[in-house]
Amino acid sequence: MNIVLIVLDTARGDITNSLIEDGELPNLAALAKNGQWYTDARANGPWTVPSHGSIFTGEYPSESGITGDDPTYYNVPLVEELSSKGYATAGYSANPWLSAEFNFNSAFDVFHNKFDYDPNGISISHLFRESTNPSDLLMTFFSEIRDKPVASSLINLLFWAYQRSRRKDSGGKYLLSRAADRLVKDPERDDFIFVNVTEPHLAYSVPDEWLPKDITKSDLNNIEQDPAQYNANISDISEDEFGILRDTYRSTLKYVDHQLEQLIKKASDNTTIIVAGDHGELLGEHNRFGHQYSLHRELLHVPLVINGPTIEPKKVTETVELKSLCEIILGLAENETRRLPEQPYHIAETISPRPSLATLKQKDGSSPGEYVYMYNHGARSITSDRGKLIEFPDGDVKFINEDGSEATASQELRESLHSTLANECGEIISGRDTDLKVSEDIKSQLKDLGYA
User: Fold this and answer.
1) Could you tell me the maximum CA-CA distance found in the chain, to the nearest angstrom?
2) pTM value?
3) Closest to 73 (Cα-Cα) out of 121, 30, 105, 43
4) CA–CA separation, 32 vs 274, rounded Å?
């Protein structure tokens, strides 16, 4: 059996599920109608690093150690175990957090990012980030090409030129196309394919024809799309501008749904397709923007659909956690079909959000909001049908309703939820307020996504 895991980076559960219900995501709607559609799936972290860490290890972020302090994958248990079961594994990532920089590629047989066609050649996108002067570019190219296969590097150069003139999105169309081609390359092979697409992630990039009616690229470009600037109180966003961003966000989901069609059509009847969000986004709710410095529901409620030959159609409304996907996928590889287990509570952690407070303070005119200081060293939450408890490393504790409003709770309830958190995750971890040391290429890519 082939298994395909597609992560729609930054896809909110409430918005995505609503679009599925309304038939505005026809491909996802078809998968949901004939598969398992989890309407209350929860991420175990509010951003890429901790959430993917939980998916690929089956552990909470504090257990896996894959956090903002150290995003490195010293192993990738899900992929490694699938390989041991005879699966050929391939990864296609548009997100720099899921790249060779952090060893995420190491367990895959084949791994591609959105910038370069051949991973063996030099990264052309890296060259163009360093300089736009033609003579400097040529000198750097011929300097670095000595250490890489010439043919691979030249292919990357041609691919970069082609993509520069033709690409109108964040790389999703290209990555899904390569994944689809992989599925049909060897019909006798059992494939595990992972794809991460970032069109729903700021800053938004989709072809003009996919923009909402009456919204132009110019309108979009005139709005601040860097959450770091907003969280540092350098830039402001009006309610009308947030309205444009929300409408455009929905359009990015519709665009990605359209691109899913090419993979769905090429998938054999012996293929299970899993589509999930890794975390959500705040678009003005709670006076916040982006997906850092918060554990609000809008960041943790994500879409999740599983469709395959052994999957019985069912709309599942109970709460489930993304970390359970690891066990479910390994079960599918053994021809075991189970639903994700219902959770009596949901746990999420953020350790060292990115960018750090120290990074925000370095920006000219920076005056970070109070919530940035509150979440700077991390936080963790536990949600049950009786409310939501948020703990901070300094000992502060908040009890809130699911809508984010403050609530009251008995001492007994607080102690019960705290005890469950401690039993599951141990003592709370305080993250470091320091910058990560990464290559200039990755630093530039992370800056494009608002992480630096």
Assistant:
1) 70
2) 0.93
3) 105
4) 10
Task: Kindly list the distances between the CA atom of residue 451 and the CA atoms of 82, 281, 291, 380, in Å, as whole numbers in the listed order.
Answer: 31, 14, 10, 20
The tokens describing 130, both together, are: 């360093």
- Partner residues linked to 273 by β-bridges: 4, 307
Backbone angles phi, psi at 373, to 5 degrees: -60, -40
- Lookup result for tokens 């050649």: 121
- H-run or E-run covering 379: strand 379-384
Q: Residue 97 carries which DSSP code?
A: T
Query: Please, where are the H alpha helices in 188-308?
Result: 217-221, 227-231, 239-266, 297-300
The answer to whether the peptide bond before residue 96 is cis (omega within 30 degrees of 0) is no
Report the C-alpha gap between 241 and 264 in whole angstroms: 35
CB 227 within 8 A of CB 368: no
Tokens found for residue 274 = 């899993």
- pLDDT values of the chain reduced to their tens digit, one per residue, 452 residues: 999 999 999 999 999 999 999 999 999 999 999 999 999 999 999 999 999 999 999 999 999 999 999 999 999 999 999 999 999 999 999 999 998 889 999 999 999 887 778 877 877 665 655 555 667 767 777 777 777 888 888 888 888 777 777 778 999 999 999 999 999 999 999 999 999 999 999 999 999 999 999 999 999 999 999 999 999 999 999 999 999 999 999 999 999 999 999 999 999 999 999 999 999 999 999 999 999 999 999 999 999 999 999 999 999 999 999 999 999 999 999 999 889 999 999 999 999 999 999 999 999 999 999 999 999 999 999 999 989 999 999 999 999 887 788 888 889 999 999 999 999 999 999 998 877 778 777 787 888 888 86
Q: Using DSSP, state whether 259 is helix, strand or coil.
A: helix
* Domains of the chain with bracketed CATH: 2-114+170-344 (3.40.720.10)
* Residue whose tokens read 């250490």: 147
CA-based nearest residue to 343, from 136, 16, 42: 42
